[in-house]
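The protein record now logged underneath.
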Amino acid sequence: MTILKSVNRLTMPVKLAIFPSFCQLCGQLLLEPEEKVICRQCLDKIDIHQGPVCRVCGRFLYHGDKPDSLCLECRNILPPYELHRSLGPYSGRLKEIIILLKYKGNEPLAVSLAEHLYRHFGPQGILAGVDLIVPVPLHRRKQRQRGFNQAELLARRLSKLTGSPLGRKILIKTRNTPSQVSLEAGKRESNLKGAFAVQKAGLIRKRIILLIDDVYTTGSTIRECALTLKKAGAKEIRAITLARA
């Protein structure tokens, strides 16, 4: 019997005793099987936005605004997608957790975060009636360097939770652009212009597509992806991100 088979036959309490895992944020011992990298208490400390948002882009509005208001930007020009929502602001616990996922290689976090998205948004609303879940792609060179695409990991888990198919590699990034983080807001749109392409356009034609990414900053990435999908024949584009910066 191999060592791996022997370990797999151990009960969970025995595994925890021999191979204890600790929350990478607070250091607490992880006791529950569903706790992956961080504990339930740290996940529950995520600051989920409860106030009004722009009914299209999801921008966080002032508490005095009506829930169905449009933000100033959307009043001036509507984006190429129909709906975008984020869990909360890119700060505090949520920011720490996203950094662990994105830059420290903690892939199991994607499962917990996708489940958090599903619990918050539920099977109705933005997740209802989706024909295909499409992750915002990385350029192949960047994905090789990182080893994974965090948006694809989130999309894969959401696909299992919702039953909507995962559209992997339908949307691809054709240019290895400079990181959006390093650019001024005004240069982000031009940096991504024409950087994405659709493969197998027949799979998205007249379909409702749900785009998934980790952080929405200026919205340049989501807008360019949505525009590319719309040009290829998609009927409706919705988008979900973990946080809004």
User: Anything to note?
Assistant: The mean pLDDT is 88.
